Amino acid sequence: MTSTAPQTALALRNVLMATDFSPCSDRALLHAVAAANHYGSTLHLVHVVPTAPFCFLPPEAYPGTLEAKCLAQDLARADAQRLLADVLRRTHCENLDNRIWVQLGVVGETLCAIIRREHIDLAVVGTHGRTGLQRVVLGSVAEEVFRHAPCPVLTVGPRSWRSDPQSVRLKHVLFPTDLSTDSARALPFVMTIACEFGAAVTILNVIEHLDTEAEHDRALVVAVLKQRMQGIVSATGLKPSKLDFQIEFGDVADSIIETAERLAVDLVAFGLKAPDTRADRLPWKHAYRVVCEVTCPVLSLRGPARLE
Cβ–Cβ contacts within 10 Å for residue 251, how many? Predict the structure, then answer.
């Protein structure tokens, strides 16, 4: 993303890109480089070598296990260095401050440990958007980060590949909200980004079910909800270039995906519960479905957003 603003309002000092060397990760890396370059951040490229393959070795192979682990890490580090050097060259960001981390461990746990240790302000991941058995068999770095990362996460899904992160301008942001405290907590971060880029913001609330009494007066329900939405926006003290409020009725994920496509937004952003809770206001499986199917990147924030 590019901006004409001379100064940035957010201090994103450290941007992490988690890669599994898949094509979807390569695409997301372009977004990570663009974000780090725009904010003057240090880019941390991370690859975690899973420990699982080494757990099934027969006893006679144990003496060589350490050597195999070291070899796997060395090969991954070489691949990461080549990948990052190529992307920095193609994007003319050779002078971007960067770090490469290749570690052995459980993917989700290791990434979250690095995020905390290196004080990461934004994590970027790409996802192939697979579901069902393919996801279970192949695993998903993106899903691990999306579910557990304590910092804001920008997820680049398979349908968002059509946009060029080096040239696209952030013109329109969709912010779905259930009007919860967790959702409202994420709004200042999102509004600050929108104001910085001069982007319009659409606040969306989706109603899945109405009781019989409310069903007879949808207009009143909509008016009350829009008033509440205006309240959470006013509380931020921030005014984007254009602000709109929409109420939809139906499935939450379907409504978000359809609204994002209809409005041709450049970013969908929402707040979720802190990563150490069992349930989300917008359940993670529904939120992750939005990530996989929406036609633009998705910014998710859990817990208190770090805004400076």
Answer: 13
Domain with CATH 3.40.50.620 in the chain: 14-160, 172-302
Tokens of 83: 């990948």
Q: Within 10 Å of residue 279's Cβ, how many Cβ atoms?
A: 7
How does pLDDT run across 170-219, given as a tens digit for each residue?
Answer: 899 999 999 988 889 899 999 999 999 999 999 999 998 776 666 667 78
CATH topology classification for 172-302 = Rossmann fold (3.40.50)
* Residue whose C-alpha is closest to residue 273's, from 190, 187, 164, 186: 186
What are the C-alpha distances in Å from 273 to residues 75, 168, 265, 283? Answer: 37, 30, 24, 9
- pTM for the structure as a whole: 0.84
Q: 14-160 adopts what CATH topology?
A: Rossmann fold (3.40.50)
- In DSSP terms, 15 is beta-bridged to 43, 122
